[in-house]
Specification:
Layout (H helix, E strand, L loop, with lengths): L1 H10 L2 E2 L16 H13 L7 H15 L7 E2 L1 H4 L4 E3 L1 H7 L18 H12 L4 E3 L1
């Protein structure tokens, strides 16, 4: 994926931008333990009803994960970590016209799955974007 991210950045599909730190549960009156318990329950598929403070934190986290931070295209950090970033339809719409038809890896060989990646981005654009986990 590093090669594809490099191609995306060089072609104008993605751009480095300063990114504020992730919000913290404590900043919204929730504890890290409460958030961890909520994550565990959600991962198990249990019904989850977060309290008001945790709901405020989850809303702030969602806003942070979908924010563009003036990248205009896909912010590179969304492709470099598995922190739940949402690559939005607007970012995909802005990025896809810059996509090269052929992408080369660091050894100057074609990336064999490049066209499938572009297809995935195109489909994701019409389905609310995609999360990076």
């Amino acid at each position: 994926m590093i090669d594809a991210t490099t191609v995306m950045e060089r072609s104008g599909m993605a751009r480095q931008v300063p990114t504020p730190p992730h919000p913290r549960p404590i900043d919204y009156g929730a504890s890290g333990e409460e958030y961890g318990d909520w994550l565990d329950a959600a991962d198990r598929g249990d019904p989850v009803h977060p309290g008001p403070a945790l709901t405020d934190y989850l809303d702030a986290l969602d806003r942070h994960q979908r924010a563009n931070y003036d990248a205009e295209v896909i912010p590179v950090h969304k492709l470099q970590t598995n922190d739940g970033w949402l690559v939005t339809p607007a970012e995909l719409t802005a990025a896809l016209p810059h996509a090269p038809e052929v992408a080369l890896d660091r050894r100057q060989r074609p990336i064999p799955w490049w066209n499938q990646w572009l297809d995935y981005l195109e489909v994701s654009r019409g389905h609310g974007g995609f999360r990076v986990h």
